[in-house]
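Proteins fold reproducibly. Take a sample protein:
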Amino acid sequence: MDSRASSCGARSPADHSPHSRRNPEEGPMAGYHNDKDQLLRRLRRVEGQIRGLQRMVDTDTYCIDTLTQVSAATKALQSVALHLLDSHLAHCVHDAIAAGGAEADAKVAEASQAIARLMRA
């Protein structure tokens, strides 16, 4: 069995909650599992940028300087989102398409909806 197959199992409607988690004994939860440390580092960097923004507002930093930092934090989050999307397409969607059937259709629709949300953000 391909190592990607274990990371992207079928999800029931109850699993679509943003807070749903798999049992750790079932194996990795997501296609980005191998990049988890890198993603966490990037998210911690974004967290630092947000804290910096809070300080900037607290100290009445010039508006344009604050907006520049908002833009940088936004770009950093978009970069994380694109990495997650790429991993999802390369693992979960790829494996579902290889298996075929309704699961493939569902994964493609789910990915399409996620892309639409990212485009609106």
